[in-house]
Amino acid sequence: MSATPITQTAANEDFAGALAKASLLNDLSDAVVKAVCECAERRRYDAGQTVYAMGQFDGGEFFIVLAGQMRVSIMNPETGAIFIEDIGAEAVFALEFAMSEQGGDALQQLSVMAQEDLIVAAIDADAFRALAGQRPSLMRNITVHFAKTLSAQRFKYMSAEAAPSQRVFSALLKFVERDGVTGEWRVPRMPKHRVLADSAGVDETVTAEAVATLIQEGVARREYPGLVVNDLDRLTKLAG
Predict the structure, then answer these.
(1) Local structure of residue 25 (DSSP, 8 states)
(2) What is the C-alpha radius of gyration for the chain, rounded to an integer number of angstroms?
(3) CATH topology of domain 4-157
(4) Per-residue pLDDT tens over the stretch 43-86
(5) Which pLDDT tens digit goes with each residue over 30-42?
(6) Backbone angles phi, psi at 132, to 5 degrees
(7) Would the pTM of this model clear 0.85, i.e. be above it?
(8) 199 Cβ partners below 8 Å, 6+ apart?
(9) Domains in the chain: boundaries
(10) Architecture of the domain spanning 164-238
(11) Which residues contact 11 (CB under 8 A, 6 or more apart)?
């Protein structure tokens, strides 16, 4: 891992103030925020710099983004397809691994880079768990954080019922693989619309329209017998 740490001794008060803005630490006492600071390190990464290469992250710390944006990529080892998520200021990454002490094979498929110039608080997982066990107010905030995350996921699935095309994009994403020669992302052999429709639980007409939209907007292009994905990030976002 390559990072340029910012020493927190020169600006400890600023560090605590920045941390307190994150929803995870909202409305906590100064003493609790200070205690979190003591098990955290402020780090800076330049845009494009690797935070964790694939296989390096072990869940021993989690991040609160203080400024900029990080990009998390998770590879499906069976298909080679990559799920991409951009995480912006005040958001939290990998708290679930820190609190559960679990991650297993999923951690080995994960990589993190600075999408923009990035400043994060890297918080030691063991120390944070111990602190949460001693501070009920912090544990309350952690519980609320996970409750909001679960609610958002549930709403996302409910919304999918009203967005059939989103389900088609999600079904199509499962067929995306990386070309070992060109490095392009592609669907080597385009499944029949009926197959995609059955997988997404929609009509074939919806499937045809969704694929046509991808091509019209330049997200993908047809290349017989398959499909070349020009913008995997956009397809991932469309899939929800």
Answers:
(1) G
(2) 21
(3) Jelly Rolls (2.60.120)
(4) 999 999 999 998 899 889 999 999 999 998 887 666 566 777 88
(5) 999 999 999 999 9
(6) -60, -35
(7) no
(8) 171, 174
(9) 4-157, 164-238
(10) Sandwich (2.60)
(11) none
